[in-house]
Amino acid sequence: MSRALISIPASVSAGEIFEVKVLIAHPMETGFRTGASGRILERDIITDFSCLFENEEVFRAQFSPAIAANPFISFSMRVKKPGTFRFQWRGDHGFEADEERQVELK
Amino acid sequence: MIENDGLNRRQVLGAGAALLATGLSLAEVRASFARTMGRVVVVGGGFAGAACARALKSVAPNLEVTLVEVNMTYVACPFSNEVVVGSRTISQQYFSYDKIQALGIKVRIARAVAVEESSIILDDGTKLPFDRAVLAPGIDLNFDAIPGYDETAIERLPHAWKAGPQTELLHRQLQAMPDGGVVVMIIPANPYRCPPGPYERASLIAHFLKMQKPRSKIILLDSKDSFSKQKLFSQAWAEFYPDHLEWVGLSGGGKVASVDVRDMSVKTDFAQFQADVINVIPPQRAGRLAAAAGATDQSHWCPIDPTQFESKLRPGIHVLGDAAIMGAMPKSAFAANMQAKACAYVIAALMNGDRVPELQLINTCYSMIGYDQAISIAGVYRPADGVLADVPGAGGTSPLDAGADFRRMEAELARGWFSTICDDVFG
Protein backbone atom coordinates (compact mmCIF):
# COMPACT_ATOMS: atom_id res chain seq x y z
CA MET A 1 0.00 0.00 0.00
CA SER A 2 1.20 3.44 -0.82
CA ARG A 3 0.85 6.40 1.43
CA ALA A 4 -0.53 9.64 0.04
CA LEU A 5 -0.81 13.05 1.66
CA ILE A 6 -3.40 15.50 0.40
CA SER A 7 -3.94 19.13 1.28
CA ILE A 8 -7.25 20.58 0.07
CA PRO A 9 -9.65 22.95 1.89
CA ALA A 10 -12.71 21.28 3.37
CA SER A 11 -14.92 24.16 2.24
CA VAL A 12 -14.51 26.96 -0.30
CA SER A 13 -16.60 29.77 -1.78
CA ALA A 14 -18.07 29.13 -5.23
CA GLY A 15 -15.54 30.22 -7.86
CA GLU A 16 -12.77 30.82 -5.31
CA ILE A 17 -9.33 29.71 -6.50
CA PHE A 18 -7.70 27.31 -4.04
CA GLU A 19 -4.50 25.27 -3.97
CA VAL A 20 -4.41 21.48 -3.99
CA LYS A 21 -1.20 19.76 -2.82
CA VAL A 22 -0.55 16.04 -3.06
CA LEU A 23 2.45 13.91 -2.15
CA ILE A 24 2.77 10.17 -2.51
CA ALA A 25 5.49 7.95 -1.03
CA HIS A 26 7.13 6.15 -3.96
CA PRO A 27 10.80 5.31 -4.77
CA MET A 28 10.55 6.45 -8.44
CA GLU A 29 13.34 4.06 -9.44
CA THR A 30 14.62 5.42 -12.75
CA GLY A 31 15.67 2.20 -14.44
CA PHE A 32 19.12 3.66 -15.10
CA ARG A 33 20.84 2.85 -11.82
CA THR A 34 22.89 -0.20 -10.96
CA GLY A 35 22.16 -2.02 -7.73
CA ALA A 36 24.47 -3.67 -5.25
CA SER A 37 24.71 -6.76 -7.47
CA GLY A 38 25.89 -4.68 -10.43
CA ARG A 39 22.66 -5.29 -12.37
CA ILE A 40 20.47 -2.44 -13.58
CA LEU A 41 17.59 -1.89 -11.19
CA GLU A 42 14.30 -2.34 -12.99
CA ARG A 43 12.35 0.83 -13.66
CA ASP A 44 9.61 1.40 -11.11
CA ILE A 45 7.93 4.77 -11.45
CA ILE A 46 4.52 6.35 -11.27
CA THR A 47 3.59 7.21 -14.86
CA ASP A 48 0.25 8.98 -14.51
CA PHE A 49 -1.52 11.17 -12.01
CA SER A 50 -5.02 12.46 -12.48
CA CYS A 51 -7.48 14.45 -10.44
CA LEU A 52 -11.23 14.08 -11.05
CA PHE A 53 -14.02 16.28 -9.72
CA GLU A 54 -17.38 14.53 -9.72
CA ASN A 55 -15.94 11.90 -12.10
CA GLU A 56 -14.74 14.50 -14.61
CA GLU A 57 -11.01 14.86 -15.16
CA VAL A 58 -9.84 18.34 -14.12
CA PHE A 59 -6.07 17.86 -13.88
CA ARG A 60 -3.59 15.34 -15.27
CA ALA A 61 0.19 14.91 -15.09
CA GLN A 62 2.53 12.42 -16.72
CA PHE A 63 5.65 11.49 -14.77
CA SER A 64 9.00 10.52 -16.29
CA PRO A 65 12.02 8.80 -14.72
CA ALA A 66 13.46 12.29 -14.10
CA ILE A 67 10.84 12.95 -11.41
CA ALA A 68 12.29 12.53 -7.90
CA ALA A 69 11.12 10.01 -5.33
CA ASN A 70 7.94 10.82 -3.41
CA PRO A 71 6.47 13.04 -6.13
CA PHE A 72 4.87 16.20 -4.80
CA ILE A 73 2.66 18.34 -6.99
CA SER A 74 0.49 21.32 -6.38
CA PHE A 75 -2.07 22.92 -8.66
CA SER A 76 -4.91 25.42 -8.51
CA MET A 77 -8.58 24.57 -8.75
CA ARG A 78 -12.01 26.17 -8.44
CA VAL A 79 -15.48 24.71 -8.15
CA LYS A 80 -19.02 26.07 -8.48
CA LYS A 81 -20.70 23.28 -6.54
CA PRO A 82 -19.78 20.94 -3.69
CA GLY A 83 -18.49 17.51 -4.64
CA THR A 84 -15.86 14.82 -4.45
CA PHE A 85 -12.29 15.08 -5.67
CA ARG A 86 -10.71 11.81 -6.67
CA PHE A 87 -6.92 11.46 -6.93
CA GLN A 88 -5.45 8.58 -8.94
CA TRP A 89 -1.86 7.48 -9.36
CA ARG A 90 -0.94 4.73 -11.84
CA GLY A 91 2.50 3.28 -12.52
CA ASP A 92 4.83 0.44 -13.39
CA HIS A 93 4.11 -3.09 -12.19
CA GLY A 94 0.41 -2.33 -11.90
CA PHE A 95 0.91 0.38 -9.29
CA GLU A 96 -2.41 1.91 -8.25
CA ALA A 97 -3.32 4.38 -5.52
CA ASP A 98 -6.64 6.17 -5.11
CA GLU A 99 -7.79 8.78 -2.63
CA GLU A 100 -10.92 10.89 -2.27
CA ARG A 101 -11.69 14.18 -0.56
CA GLN A 102 -15.00 15.98 -0.17
CA VAL A 103 -15.17 19.75 -0.71
CA GLU A 104 -18.19 21.72 0.55
CA LEU A 105 -19.35 25.20 -0.39
CA LYS A 106 -19.18 27.93 2.24
CA MET B 1 35.11 -3.77 8.33
CA ILE B 2 36.38 -2.04 11.43
CA GLU B 3 35.25 -4.12 14.37
CA ASN B 4 33.36 -2.27 17.01
CA ASP B 5 36.26 -2.11 19.32
CA GLY B 6 36.16 1.51 20.37
CA LEU B 7 39.59 1.25 21.94
CA ASN B 8 41.09 1.01 18.50
CA ARG B 9 39.33 4.16 17.48
CA ARG B 10 40.68 6.10 20.42
CA GLN B 11 44.17 4.96 19.62
CA VAL B 12 43.57 5.94 16.04
CA LEU B 13 42.74 9.51 17.05
CA GLY B 14 45.97 9.91 18.96
CA ALA B 15 47.93 8.50 16.07
CA GLY B 16 45.89 10.53 13.60
CA ALA B 17 48.62 12.10 11.58
CA ALA B 18 50.49 8.84 11.33
CA LEU B 19 47.73 7.57 9.08
CA LEU B 20 49.09 9.67 6.27
CA ALA B 21 50.64 7.30 3.81
CA THR B 22 53.75 9.43 3.47
CA GLY B 23 56.14 6.61 2.88
CA LEU B 24 58.41 8.37 5.38
CA SER B 25 58.62 7.91 9.11
CA LEU B 26 57.32 10.80 11.20
CA ALA B 27 60.82 11.55 12.42
CA GLU B 28 62.07 11.78 8.85
CA VAL B 29 59.16 14.02 7.91
CA ARG B 30 59.82 16.30 10.89
CA ALA B 31 63.53 16.52 10.15
CA SER B 32 62.76 17.48 6.59
CA PHE B 33 60.25 20.15 7.67
CA ALA B 34 62.61 21.71 10.22
CA ARG B 35 63.96 23.89 7.45
CA THR B 36 60.45 24.95 6.34
CA MET B 37 60.19 28.73 6.70
CA GLY B 38 57.34 31.11 6.00
CA ARG B 39 54.05 32.41 7.29
CA VAL B 40 50.78 30.55 7.58
CA VAL B 41 47.61 32.20 8.84
CA VAL B 42 44.82 29.93 10.05
CA VAL B 43 41.36 31.46 10.45
CA GLY B 44 38.91 29.71 12.77
CA GLY B 45 39.80 28.18 16.12
CA GLY B 46 37.62 25.07 16.12
CA PHE B 47 38.41 21.40 15.75
CA ALA B 48 39.78 22.07 12.26
CA GLY B 49 41.59 25.40 12.57
CA ALA B 50 43.06 25.09 16.04
CA ALA B 51 44.23 21.55 15.33
CA CYS B 52 45.81 22.62 12.05
CA ALA B 53 47.69 25.53 13.63
CA ARG B 54 48.96 23.19 16.29
CA ALA B 55 49.97 20.45 13.86
CA LEU B 56 51.76 22.98 11.64
CA LYS B 57 53.84 24.23 14.55
CA SER B 58 54.57 20.70 15.57
CA VAL B 59 55.72 19.39 12.17
CA ALA B 60 57.45 22.57 11.02
CA PRO B 61 58.57 24.45 14.15
CA ASN B 62 60.22 27.26 12.19
CA LEU B 63 56.99 28.23 10.47
CA GLU B 64 55.37 31.43 11.71
CA VAL B 65 51.82 30.31 12.50
CA THR B 66 49.01 32.72 13.39
CA LEU B 67 45.57 31.58 14.50
CA VAL B 68 42.73 34.07 14.09
CA GLU B 69 39.58 33.41 16.09
CA VAL B 70 36.71 35.73 16.98
CA ASN B 71 35.93 34.28 20.43
CA MET B 72 38.24 34.21 23.45
CA THR B 73 36.71 30.95 24.59
CA TYR B 74 35.84 28.03 22.36
CA VAL B 75 32.52 26.30 23.01
CA ALA B 76 32.63 22.73 21.71
CA CYS B 77 29.61 21.32 19.89
CA PRO B 78 30.18 17.59 20.53
CA PHE B 79 28.33 16.61 23.71
CA SER B 80 26.50 19.95 23.82
CA ASN B 81 23.29 17.94 23.33
CA GLU B 82 23.82 16.77 26.90
CA VAL B 83 23.77 20.42 27.96
CA VAL B 84 20.40 20.74 26.21
CA VAL B 85 18.92 18.13 28.54
CA GLY B 86 20.87 19.28 31.60
CA SER B 87 23.05 16.23 32.16
CA ARG B 88 26.13 18.36 31.52
CA THR B 89 26.95 22.03 32.12
CA ILE B 90 27.94 24.44 29.37
CA SER B 91 31.21 25.25 31.17
CA GLN B 92 32.32 21.68 30.46
CA GLN B 93 32.24 22.67 26.78
CA TYR B 94 34.58 25.67 27.25
CA PHE B 95 38.17 25.59 26.03
CA SER B 96 40.80 28.32 25.98
CA TYR B 97 43.60 29.05 23.53
CA ASP B 98 46.23 29.47 26.27
CA LYS B 99 47.99 26.19 25.57
CA ILE B 100 48.02 26.84 21.85
CA GLN B 101 49.57 30.24 22.47
CA ALA B 102 52.14 28.68 24.79
CA LEU B 103 53.28 26.47 21.91
CA GLY B 104 54.51 29.53 20.02
CA ILE B 105 51.43 30.06 17.86
CA LYS B 106 50.29 33.68 17.63
CA VAL B 107 46.64 33.80 18.62
CA ARG B 108 44.71 36.85 17.42
CA ILE B 109 41.24 37.33 18.91
CA ALA B 110 39.60 39.25 16.09
CA ARG B 111 37.17 38.79 13.22
CA ALA B 112 38.71 38.13 9.83
CA VAL B 113 36.65 39.99 7.25
CA ALA B 114 38.45 39.52 3.94
CA VAL B 115 41.15 37.52 2.23
CA GLU B 116 43.35 39.44 -0.21
CA GLU B 117 45.94 38.00 -2.58
CA SER B 118 48.40 37.23 0.22
CA SER B 119 46.99 38.67 3.40
CA ILE B 120 44.07 38.22 5.76
CA ILE B 121 42.27 41.44 6.72
CA LEU B 122 40.93 41.76 10.27
CA ASP B 123 37.98 43.88 11.37
CA ASP B 124 40.32 46.44 12.98
CA GLY B 125 42.03 46.91 9.62
CA THR B 126 45.12 44.85 10.44
CA LYS B 127 46.67 42.95 7.54
CA LEU B 128 48.18 39.56 8.32
CA PRO B 129 50.45 38.56 5.42
CA PHE B 130 50.71 34.85 4.56
CA ASP B 131 52.47 32.48 2.22
CA ARG B 132 49.61 30.02 2.65
CA ALA B 133 46.33 30.45 4.49
CA VAL B 134 43.91 27.98 6.04
CA LEU B 135 40.24 28.84 6.34
CA ALA B 136 38.20 26.86 8.84
CA PRO B 137 35.24 29.21 9.37
CA GLY B 138 32.68 26.53 10.20
CA ILE B 139 29.07 27.19 9.29
CA ASP B 140 26.57 30.01 9.08
CA LEU B 141 22.83 29.46 9.27
CA ASN B 142 20.59 30.21 6.29
CA PHE B 143 18.00 32.58 7.65
CA ASP B 144 16.26 32.88 4.30
CA ALA B 145 15.47 29.17 4.08
CA ILE B 146 12.40 28.73 6.32
CA PRO B 147 9.74 31.46 6.07
CA GLY B 148 9.24 32.99 9.51
CA TYR B 149 12.69 32.01 10.78
CA ASP B 150 15.11 34.94 10.77
CA GLU B 151 17.85 36.24 13.10
CA THR B 152 15.31 37.72 15.48
CA ALA B 153 13.41 34.41 15.78
CA ILE B 154 16.31 32.57 17.42
CA GLU B 155 15.54 34.13 20.81
CA ARG B 156 12.17 32.39 20.79
CA LEU B 157 12.94 29.37 18.60
CA PRO B 158 16.54 28.40 19.36
CA HIS B 159 18.63 26.56 16.79
CA ALA B 160 21.31 25.60 19.33
CA TRP B 161 23.40 24.47 16.36
CA LYS B 162 26.36 26.54 17.48
CA ALA B 163 27.13 25.67 21.08
CA GLY B 164 26.83 28.53 23.58
CA PRO B 165 23.95 30.75 24.72
CA GLN B 166 21.58 29.04 22.26
CA THR B 167 22.29 25.67 23.85
CA GLU B 168 21.45 27.07 27.28
CA LEU B 169 18.31 28.76 25.96
CA LEU B 170 16.96 25.50 24.58
CA HIS B 171 17.75 23.83 27.91
CA ARG B 172 15.85 26.51 29.84
CA GLN B 173 12.85 26.21 27.52
CA LEU B 174 12.71 22.44 28.00
CA GLN B 175 12.99 22.87 31.77
CA ALA B 176 10.19 25.42 31.82
CA MET B 177 7.84 23.46 29.56
CA PRO B 178 4.78 22.05 31.37
CA ASP B 179 4.26 18.29 31.46
CA GLY B 180 2.08 17.41 28.48
CA GLY B 181 3.89 19.92 26.26
CA VAL B 182 4.98 19.31 22.68
CA VAL B 183 8.51 19.85 21.43
CA VAL B 184 8.93 20.21 17.66
CA MET B 185 12.36 19.84 16.08
CA ILE B 186 12.90 20.92 12.47
CA ILE B 187 15.67 19.04 10.66
CA PRO B 188 17.23 20.17 7.36
CA ALA B 189 18.15 18.26 4.21
CA ASN B 190 21.82 17.38 3.64
CA PRO B 191 24.44 18.74 3.86
CA TYR B 192 24.69 20.25 7.32
CA ARG B 193 26.97 20.18 10.38
CA CYS B 194 26.94 16.89 12.28
CA PRO B 195 24.61 14.61 10.26
CA PRO B 196 23.49 12.41 13.22
CA GLY B 197 23.37 15.40 15.63
CA PRO B 198 19.62 16.11 15.38
CA TYR B 199 18.79 12.46 16.07
CA GLU B 200 21.11 12.30 19.07
CA ARG B 201 19.51 15.47 20.42
CA ALA B 202 16.03 14.07 19.80
CA SER B 203 16.94 10.86 21.62
CA LEU B 204 18.25 12.78 24.63
CA ILE B 205 15.23 15.09 24.71
CA ALA B 206 12.92 12.05 24.52
CA HIS B 207 14.82 10.52 27.43
CA PHE B 208 14.50 13.79 29.37
CA LEU B 209 10.74 13.95 28.69
CA LYS B 210 10.22 10.31 29.62
CA MET B 211 11.95 10.88 32.97
CA GLN B 212 10.73 14.36 33.89
CA LYS B 213 7.63 15.23 31.85
CA PRO B 214 6.18 11.87 30.86
CA ARG B 215 3.01 13.23 29.24
CA SER B 216 5.09 15.25 26.76
CA LYS B 217 6.53 14.27 23.40
CA ILE B 218 8.95 15.42 20.73
CA ILE B 219 7.97 15.50 17.05
CA LEU B 220 10.74 15.55 14.44
CA LEU B 221 9.85 17.21 11.15
CA ASP B 222 12.56 16.07 8.77
CA SER B 223 13.32 17.24 5.23
CA LYS B 224 14.71 13.84 4.32
CA ASP B 225 13.69 10.19 4.40
CA SER B 226 17.00 8.65 5.37
CA PHE B 227 19.71 9.77 7.77
CA SER B 228 22.93 8.73 9.48
CA LYS B 229 22.74 5.62 11.71
CA GLN B 230 19.01 5.49 10.93
CA LYS B 231 18.49 1.80 11.71
CA LEU B 232 20.22 2.15 15.06
CA PHE B 233 18.32 5.27 16.01
CA SER B 234 14.99 3.82 14.87
CA GLN B 235 15.61 0.70 16.90
CA ALA B 236 16.44 2.73 20.01
CA TRP B 237 13.37 4.95 19.57
CA ALA B 238 11.05 1.97 19.21
CA GLU B 239 12.55 0.36 22.27
CA PHE B 240 12.90 3.33 24.63
CA TYR B 241 10.70 6.19 23.46
CA PRO B 242 7.64 4.78 21.63
CA ASP B 243 5.35 7.28 23.42
CA HIS B 244 7.76 10.20 23.53
CA LEU B 245 9.25 10.54 20.07
CA GLU B 246 7.60 10.74 16.66
CA TRP B 247 9.64 11.09 13.45
CA VAL B 248 8.01 12.46 10.28
CA GLY B 249 10.20 12.03 7.20
CA LEU B 250 10.02 13.82 3.87
CA SER B 251 7.62 11.35 2.29
CA GLY B 252 5.43 11.57 5.37
CA GLY B 253 5.10 15.33 4.90
CA GLY B 254 8.00 16.30 7.21
CA LYS B 255 9.28 19.18 5.13
CA VAL B 256 8.45 22.45 6.89
CA ALA B 257 6.80 25.22 4.89
CA SER B 258 6.88 27.96 7.56
CA VAL B 259 7.16 28.71 11.26
CA ASP B 260 5.20 31.26 13.25
CA VAL B 261 7.12 32.74 16.18
CA ARG B 262 4.11 34.54 17.64
CA ASP B 263 1.66 31.64 17.94
CA MET B 264 4.37 28.94 18.26
CA SER B 265 3.24 26.87 15.32
CA VAL B 266 4.91 25.03 12.47
CA LYS B 267 3.26 24.46 9.10
CA THR B 268 4.11 21.78 6.57
CA ASP B 269 2.33 21.48 3.23
CA PHE B 270 -0.08 19.02 4.83
CA ALA B 271 -0.43 19.78 8.52
CA GLN B 272 0.00 22.34 11.27
CA PHE B 273 1.74 21.62 14.58
CA GLN B 274 1.23 23.60 17.76
CA ALA B 275 4.26 23.48 20.01
CA ASP B 276 5.55 24.60 23.40
CA VAL B 277 9.21 24.42 22.38
CA ILE B 278 10.43 24.65 18.79
CA ASN B 279 14.04 23.78 17.94
CA VAL B 280 14.76 24.91 14.38
CA ILE B 281 17.90 23.46 12.84
CA PRO B 282 17.95 25.49 9.62
CA PRO B 283 19.86 24.69 6.42
CA GLN B 284 23.44 25.92 6.54
CA ARG B 285 26.33 27.25 4.47
CA ALA B 286 30.05 27.81 4.87
CA GLY B 287 30.98 30.47 7.43
CA ARG B 288 30.78 33.94 5.92
CA LEU B 289 34.53 34.51 5.58
CA ALA B 290 34.60 31.71 3.02
CA ALA B 291 32.17 33.62 0.82
CA ALA B 292 34.03 36.91 1.42
CA ALA B 293 37.21 35.14 0.29
CA GLY B 294 35.52 33.97 -2.90
CA ALA B 295 36.03 30.35 -1.89
CA THR B 296 32.36 29.29 -2.08
CA ASP B 297 30.45 28.08 -5.15
CA GLN B 298 26.69 28.25 -5.88
CA SER B 299 26.06 25.66 -3.19
CA HIS B 300 27.48 28.18 -0.64
CA TRP B 301 30.07 25.58 0.40
CA CYS B 302 33.78 25.46 -0.54
CA PRO B 303 34.94 23.16 -3.33
CA ILE B 304 38.42 21.81 -2.63
CA ASP B 305 41.05 19.60 -4.20
CA PRO B 306 40.76 16.50 -1.99
CA THR B 307 44.43 15.62 -2.35
CA GLN B 308 45.54 18.76 -0.48
CA PHE B 309 42.42 20.63 0.75
CA GLU B 310 43.32 23.57 -1.47
CA SER B 311 40.42 25.72 -2.60
CA LYS B 312 39.48 25.14 -6.23
CA LEU B 313 38.59 28.83 -6.41
CA ARG B 314 41.41 30.44 -4.39
CA PRO B 315 44.83 28.83 -4.97
CA GLY B 316 47.14 29.06 -1.96
CA ILE B 317 44.19 28.88 0.44
CA HIS B 318 43.20 25.64 2.10
CA VAL B 319 39.69 25.07 3.45
CA LEU B 320 39.03 22.60 6.27
CA GLY B 321 36.17 21.23 8.31
CA ASP B 322 32.47 21.94 8.03
CA ALA B 323 32.87 24.74 5.46
CA ALA B 324 34.42 22.52 2.79
CA ILE B 325 32.84 20.05 0.38
CA MET B 326 34.58 16.91 1.57
CA GLY B 327 32.67 14.37 -0.53
CA ALA B 328 31.71 11.32 1.49
CA MET B 329 33.42 12.62 4.62
CA PRO B 330 30.84 14.08 7.02
CA LYS B 331 30.93 17.47 8.71
CA SER B 332 32.10 16.24 12.12
CA ALA B 333 34.66 17.28 14.73
CA PHE B 334 36.66 14.11 14.21
CA ALA B 335 36.71 14.60 10.44
CA ALA B 336 37.75 18.24 10.84
CA ASN B 337 40.53 17.29 13.22
CA MET B 338 41.78 14.57 10.90
CA GLN B 339 41.74 16.88 7.88
CA ALA B 340 43.58 19.52 9.90
CA LYS B 341 46.48 17.24 10.73
CA ALA B 342 46.73 15.94 7.19
CA CYS B 343 46.57 19.49 5.85
CA ALA B 344 49.44 20.56 8.10
CA TYR B 345 51.66 17.94 6.43
CA VAL B 346 50.42 18.98 3.00
CA ILE B 347 51.22 22.64 3.67
CA ALA B 348 54.65 21.88 5.09
CA ALA B 349 55.43 19.74 2.04
CA LEU B 350 54.18 22.37 -0.39
CA MET B 351 56.21 25.12 1.29
CA ASN B 352 59.24 22.88 1.28
CA GLY B 353 58.79 21.95 -2.35
CA ASP B 354 58.46 18.29 -1.36
CA ARG B 355 56.11 15.71 -2.77
CA VAL B 356 52.69 16.03 -1.12
CA PRO B 357 51.88 12.97 0.99
CA GLU B 358 49.07 10.72 -0.15
CA LEU B 359 46.06 11.04 2.10
CA GLN B 360 43.96 8.47 3.82
CA LEU B 361 41.52 9.82 6.36
CA ILE B 362 39.26 8.36 8.97
CA ASN B 363 36.15 9.50 10.80
CA THR B 364 34.45 8.13 13.86
CA CYS B 365 31.30 9.51 15.34
CA TYR B 366 29.44 8.50 18.46
CA SER B 367 25.84 9.43 19.17
CA MET B 368 24.10 9.18 22.51
CA ILE B 369 20.74 7.40 22.27
CA GLY B 370 19.99 8.05 25.95
CA TYR B 371 21.73 9.35 29.06
CA ASP B 372 24.08 6.37 29.32
CA GLN B 373 23.94 4.55 25.97
CA ALA B 374 25.56 5.32 22.64
CA ILE B 375 26.01 4.06 19.09
CA SER B 376 28.79 4.78 16.60
CA ILE B 377 29.79 4.90 12.97
CA ALA B 378 33.25 4.86 11.40
CA GLY B 379 34.46 5.48 7.86
CA VAL B 380 37.71 5.58 5.91
CA TYR B 381 38.18 8.01 3.02
CA ARG B 382 40.71 8.71 0.30
CA PRO B 383 40.77 11.03 -2.71
CA ALA B 384 39.23 9.46 -5.80
CA ASP B 385 37.79 11.15 -8.91
CA GLY B 386 38.13 14.63 -7.44
CA VAL B 387 36.35 13.95 -4.16
CA LEU B 388 37.05 12.25 -0.86
CA ALA B 389 35.43 8.86 -1.41
CA ASP B 390 34.50 6.07 0.97
CA VAL B 391 37.02 3.25 0.98
CA PRO B 392 34.76 0.28 0.20
CA GLY B 393 34.57 -2.35 2.90
CA ALA B 394 36.14 -0.10 5.54
CA GLY B 395 34.20 1.36 8.44
CA GLY B 396 30.74 0.44 9.65
CA THR B 397 28.30 1.07 12.45
CA SER B 398 27.61 -0.49 15.83
CA PRO B 399 25.69 -3.75 15.43
CA LEU B 400 21.91 -3.74 15.69
CA ASP B 401 20.52 -5.58 18.72
CA ALA B 402 23.84 -5.14 20.54
CA GLY B 403 22.27 -4.95 23.97
CA ALA B 404 22.48 -2.44 26.80
CA ASP B 405 25.95 -3.41 28.05
CA PHE B 406 27.47 -2.81 24.64
CA ARG B 407 25.66 0.52 24.25
CA ARG B 408 26.80 1.60 27.74
CA MET B 409 30.38 0.71 26.82
CA GLU B 410 30.06 2.83 23.68
CA ALA B 411 28.83 5.74 25.83
CA GLU B 412 32.00 5.42 27.92
CA LEU B 413 34.08 5.34 24.74
CA ALA B 414 32.24 8.40 23.48
CA ARG B 415 33.21 10.33 26.63
CA GLY B 416 36.76 9.09 26.27
CA TRP B 417 36.78 10.20 22.66
CA PHE B 418 35.60 13.70 23.62
CA SER B 419 38.22 14.22 26.31
CA THR B 420 40.92 12.84 23.99
CA ILE B 421 40.09 15.10 21.06
CA CYS B 422 39.69 18.20 23.24
CA ASP B 423 43.00 17.48 24.92
CA ASP B 424 44.57 16.87 21.54
CA VAL B 425 43.41 20.25 20.20
CA PHE B 426 43.27 22.54 23.25
CA GLY B 427 45.12 20.77 26.06
Biggest interface, and residues per chain? A-B, 11 and 7 residues
CATH homology superfamily name of chain A: Immunoglobulins
- Bin the helical content of chain A: under 10%
Q: State the total count of DSSP E strands of chain B.
A: 26
Going by CATH, the architecture of one domain in chain B would be: 3-Layer(bba) Sandwich
What's the helical proportion of residues of chain B? 25-40%
Strand order of the largest sheet of chain B: 5-2-1-9-21
Which features does this protein show?
heterodimer, A: 106 residues, mainly beta, Immunoglobulin-like, three-stranded antiparallel beta sheet, 8 strands, 51% strand, elongated, B: alpha/beta, five-stranded parallel beta sheet, four-stranded parallel beta sheet, globular, disordered N terminus
Structural write-up:
The complex is a heterodimer of chains A (106) and B (427). Chain A is 0% helix and 51% strand. Chain A has 106 residues and is mainly beta. A five-stranded mixed sheet of chain A has the order 2-8-7-4-5, with no helix packed on it. The termini of chain A are far apart. Chain B is of the alpha/beta class. Chain B has a domain at 151-280: FAD/NAD(P)-binding domain, CATH 3.50.50. In chain B, 29% of the residues lie in helices and 27% in strands. Chain B is built from eleven helices and 26 strands. In chain B, the strands form eight sheets. In chain B, strands 5-2-1-9-21 form a five-stranded parallel sheet, covered by helices on one side. The longest helix of chain B has 23 residues, at 404-426. Chain B starts with 5 loop residues before the first helix and ends with a helix. The A-B interface holds A 3, 5-7, 21, 23, 25, 69-70, 72, 74 and B 225, 250-253, 269-270.
